[in-house]
Design a protein that fits this description.
- Chain B: It comes from Geodermatophilus africanus.
- Chain B: Keywords: ATP-binding, Nucleotide-binding, Transport.
- The complex is a heterodimer of chains A (about 210) and B (about 250).
- Chain A has nine helices and no strands.
- With about 210 residues, chain A is mostly helical.
- The two termini of chain A are about 30 Å apart.
- In chain B, about 35% of the residues lie in helices and about 25% in strands.
- Chain B has one domain: 3-Layer(aba) Sandwich (Rossmann fold), CATH 3.40.50.
- Chain B is of the alpha/beta class and about 250 residues long.
- The chains are: A mainly alpha (about 210), B alpha/beta (about 250).
- At the A-B interface, helix 7, helix 8 and helix 9 of A face helix 2, helix 3 and helix 4 of B.
């Protein structure tokens, strides 16, 4: 599980502000759904590949992994559309979704999480008007990215421990027997993380510095 | 990240008295009816202090008292003259804390961003922050992993990252709570060497008794009390005797 996809390369795309990249991504999404033609979708896909592989110099594997992870979903989508509408419609839908996923992967691979966090903080700035702290929202965003793989790893460990003792439940029973111990572990971990945040000054309130990021 | 100053932060400007070290005056701690620590009077000024004891003896609570993660239900803990109860932020800036499980301490997805986290909280300007992060990554052998996802590091690298994240904040004292328990021999030795080379005062809670070689003072905690307070040799001998009686 790799949620942190950043690929460090010195490229003009990497140097673009995160906000600009996210705006472009949003604009692309609007375009793909406002102008739902195969020509637009095809051009967008080519453009995404040119930016990702050419301008940003990302390894092909980074984008290929994203597409491969979606293969079954895209296949089902294609089949459903082919059966309920027609094959062209199915291909077009798949093309649009694939383009968007690859474009999002280009943004993620060329943008550090800290830059994303700053955009989230910027968007959350109005929270200050009601006494909120946008930096907390940014921290939540970063922590979500950090702890999803940890959560998956812990769930895997629980399943491995159960298997080692002869238990190999499947389906809903597997979900039930994994969720309860996982919740217990996560509550303990949440307590540990809150202590770590305290110890590292999360509740500290330094002076706002001009130009400070 | 940008921060606002709140009225509560002004208490942190109190002047510390570094020569006083860590003082525990009549300290006790209870969780509900359960007494975890009691009757502790100590002054810790030595550069290297170890804390050993059986599981459940109160060691971890003792460690957490030293930077205000746990407040005493009885008595007073002072760090360089600053009270953990009333000046906790100032205390935490002076006392770094390294936890047993680095996974719980690493809060950002990538290595460099996590090391920078504490500096952001301290309001360190971006240029200085970047320089200090780079220096810390170099010093702790993580320079090639700056943009690496933290969850893909090995256990030893994660512990080094957790330590780098604390030491980059340049605390005057560092408390380690069982820093080598989850590590293999090679990584445990590496962390031990790192601790031995620190300029700061260090308090280490551990089950790895060889980690205490060269320490100035070792406390043996049992049943919530400090039952031995001596150099490593006699303290470890007392701890072994205690363990054999059980």
């Amino acid at each position: 599980m790799t949620l942190a996809l950043y690929v460090p390369v010195a490229s003009p795309v990497h140097r673009l502000p995160a906000g600009v990249k996210l705006l472009c991504l949003a604009a692309l999404a609007v375009l793909l759904f406002a102008r739902p033609t195969p020509a637009v979708a095809g051009a967008a896909l080519v453009g995404t590949l040119v930016v990702g592989l050419g301008a940003a110099r990302l390894p092909v594997a980074v984008l290929a992994r994203q597409a491969w992870a979606l293969r079954w979903f895209l296949l089902v989508l294609f089949v459903v559309h082919a059966l309920t509408a027609d094959v062209v419609s199915g291909a077009h839908t798949v093309l649009r979704l694939l383009t968007l996923v690859l474009a999002a992967a280009v943004v993620t691979a060329t943008t550090r999480v800290s830059e994303m966090v700053r955009v989230v903080e910027l968007l959350g700035a109005p929270l200050r008007l009601v006494g909120g702290r946008p930096e907390r929202v940014g921290l939540l965003f970063a922590m979500a990215l950090r702890f999803v793989p940890v959560l998956i790893e812990r769930a895997d460990r629980i399943r491995a421990a159960q298997a080692a003792r002869g238990g190999a439940p499947r389906g809903l029973r597997a979900l039930r027997t994994t969720v309860a111990p996982l919740l217990v572990q996560l509550l303990q971990m949440a307590h540990d993380v809150s202590e770590a945040l305290d110890a590292r000054g999360a509740d500290d309130v330094p002076v706002r510095r001009p130009g400070g990021a | 990240m940008r921060f606002r100053r709140s009225p509560a932060a002004t208490a942190d400007t109190d002047v510390a008295e570094p020569g006083r070290g860590i003082e525990l005056r009549g300290v006790g701690h209870r969780y509900g009816d359960r007494v975890v620590l009691e009757g502790i009077d100590l002054q810790l000024t030595e550069p290297r202090v170890g804390v050993i004891g059986a599981n459940g003896s109160g060691k971890s609570t003792f460690a957490r008292l030293l930077n205000g993660l746990v407040l005493p239900t009885q008595g007073q803990v002072l760090v360089d003259g600053l009270d953990t109860r009333t000046q906790v932020r100032a205390v935490r800036r002076r006392v770094g804390f390294v936890f047993q499980d680095p996974d719980a301490q690493i809060v950002h997805p990538t290595v460099a961003e996590d090391v920078a986290y504490g500096l952001e909280n301290q309001g360190v300007p971006p240029d200085e922050r970047a320089a200090r992060v780079a220096e810390a990554l170099e010093r702790y052998g993580l320079a090639g992993h700056a943009d690496h996802p933290a969850h893909l590091l090995s256990g030893g690298q994660k512990q080094l990252l957790a330590i780098a994240g604390v030491l980059v904040m340049q605390p005057a004292r560092v408390v380690f709570d069982e820093p080598t328990t989850l590590l293999d021999l090679v990584n445990a030795r590496r962390v031990a060497e790192l601790i031995a080379g620190l300029e700061q005062q260090v308090v280490v809670v551990t089950h790895h008794l060889d980690l205490l070689d060269g320490f100035d003072r070792v406390l043996v905690v049992d049943g919530g009390r400090v039952v031995e307070d001596a150099p490593p040799g006699p303290a470890v001998a007392a701890y072994r005797t205690l363990a054999e009686r059980r």
